[in-house]
Specification:
By secondary structure, the chain is of the alpha/beta class. The protein has one domain (7-242): 3-Layer(aba) Sandwich (Rossmann fold). 42% of the residues lie in helices and 16% in strands. It has seven helices and seven strands, in the order βαβαβαβαβαβααβ. Strand 2, helix 2 (39-51) and strand 3 form a beta-alpha-beta unit.
Length: 248
């Protein structure tokens, strides 16, 4: 898949899944813009992509801030003329008992994870529709459809992302803008070699996921050839959420 010279904005791209997505697009010729709060890690990620032959720039942005989002999109338009693809990947979690989770912590998770998807997509769509359309992928989680204890804020945010994605797909479709959603399962962003055989065996696919697995899903959903794919929710979890589990 070629994405030569397309302009791709990826939030939460300084490390982990976001960085893996940025690297995948850069390898295929895109101009990748890495947005993140972590300036040092973001600058390093962009520099390493450039050293590998890709085109990359780090843009500091707090996705909780409507002003910073608006300024970021305006800056991209001035510099690159357009935005072709947005990957809304930035996110935080707070795993605390619902009896202890504060309103401020709840709001921070929802504002970072969900509101940012809406605001960035809205602002980028203003640019996209002037240039014939574009594509958006929102990164949710399998926690949108299954839970562990003390995950209320995170689960609520990820479920909202799924719903927001199909709503915006319908609203923005007439402008030539496709919106899809990916829900990763267990994606190891640390030392993959430290995983146990038990970790891999609980997946029907036989292994724990890597960032490049999510990157390949984004490449599929955003490629211009796949113009018939919009409003979809793609679960990429090695089959784990389809596996019946019984206690012995």
């Amino acid at each position: 898949m070629s994405f030569a010279d397309l302009v791709i904005l990826i939030t939460g791209a300084a490390q982990g899944i976001g960085r893996g997505i940025a690297e995948a697009y850069a390898e295929r010729g895109a101009v990748v813009l890495l947005a993140d709060l972590q300036s040092q890690a973001g600058k390093q990620a962009a520099e390493e992509i450039r050293q590998a032959g890709g085109k990359a720039e780090f843009i500091p942005c707090d996705v909780r801030s409507e002003r910073e989002i608006s300024e970021m999109v305006e800056r991209i338009e001035r510099t690159y003329g357009r935005i072709d693809i947005v990957i809304n990947n930035a996110g935080v979690s707070r795993f605390k008992s619902p009896f202890e989770l504060s309103v401020e912590e709840w709001d921070d998770v929802l504002n970072t994870n969900v509101r940012s998807c809406f605001l960035i997509t809205r602002e980028a769509a203003k640019s996209m529709k002037k240039h014939g359309g574009g594509s958006v992928v929102n990164i949710s989680s399998t926690r949108a459809i299954m839970s562990e204890p003390n995950s209320e804020a995170y689960a609520a945010s990820k479920g909202a992302i799924v719903s927001l994605s199909h709503a915006m797909a319908v609203s923005l479709g007439p402008e030539g803008i496709r919106v899809n959603c990916v829900s990763p399962g267990w994606i190891e962003t640390g030392d993959y070699d430290e995983l146990r055989e038990l970790d891999h065996a609980q997946h029907p696919s036989g292994r724990v996921g890597r960032p490049e697995d999510i990157a390949r899903a984004c490449l599929y959903l955003t490629h211009p050839d796949n113009s018939f794919v919009t409003g979809t929710h793609l679960v990429v979890d090695g089959g784990m959420t389809r596996k019946m589990i019984y206690e012995e």
